[in-house]
Amino acid sequence: QKEVEQNSGPLSVPEGAIASLNCTYSDRVSQSFFWYRQYSGKSPELIMSIYSNGDKEDGRFTAQLNKASQYVSLLIRDSQPSDSATYLCAVFHASGGSYIPTFGRGTSLIVHP
Amino acid sequence: DADVTQTPRNRITKTGKRIMLECSQTKGHDRMYWYRQDPGLGLRLIYYSFDVKDINKGEISDGYSVSRQAQAKFSLSLESAIPNQTALYFCATSDLFGDTQYFGPGTRLTVL
Question: Which residue from A minimizes the CA distance to B5?
């Protein structure tokens, strides 16, 4: 069983601060890593993907990947109340010759004014 | 129009009833997935299909079956619904690379 672990939170940060969300995974050969945002009662939407070690930046979001430590994180700079949501980490792992996703349980983020 | 649609959006049924959830997509993707989401448990994969003739069990397939009627349609059936199948169900698609998932709006299923 491939595992993806996230702290369920809630993580509470003040508006304008940096929110740091973390995810660890068990399958050392996992290749693709994703962060999705999900508002309550809505479907998940992709924020970022990352495939190589290091940082990847997109606007206020930065994904960080460390395959040696089996760790992927998401930083949200200048957090806004509209960022309040659950953030899901997804990791693709090999299964029967293909790659399929395993999602973490999600971290609830609350950005307070 | 939405790229991935699910019907019904909400359903209340009774224990022992057969129910089908339907998913349609206009994205032209070959890969389709069914997930269930329970509070605090994230998304768990039920079944996935990489083309019309390819059906695979996911993490939690017991009690469920699927049918891939066409490239654009992927249905999930509960042959005899039970209360612990009460959950939010999502359909998703992806292209041949199979990475980015595009989710439907979800079906909220309640089994009494």
Answer: A43
Verify whether the Cβ–Cβ distance B41 to A43 is below 8 Å: no
For B22-47, the pLDDT digits (tens) are: 999 999 999 999 999 998 888 999 99
**Which chain A residues touch B45 with a CB distance below 8 Å?**
100-102
pLDDT at B98 over 80: no
CB contact under 8 A, A96 and B101: no
Q: Are A31 and A46 in contact (CB under 8 A)?
A: no
Using CA atoms, how far apart are residues A12 and A1, in angstroms rounded to an integer? 31
Please give the span between the terminal C-alpha atoms of chain B, in angstroms, as a whole number.
Answer: 33
Mean pLDDT of A4-23: 95
Backbone angles phi, psi at A59, to 5 degrees: 65, -125
**Token pair of A30 as six digits:** 């996992």
Beta strands in chain B (DSSP E): 4-7, 10-13, 19-25, 31-37, 43-51, 54-57, 64-70, 73-78, 87-94, 102-103, 107-111
pLDDT bin (cut points 50, 70, 90) of residue B12 is very high
- pLDDT attached to residue B55: 95
- Is the confidence at residue B99, as pLDDT, over 80? no
Residue pair B50/B56 in contact (Cβ under 8 Å)? The answer is yes
* Cβ count near A47 (within 10 Å): 18
- 8 Å CB contact of A34 and B100: yes
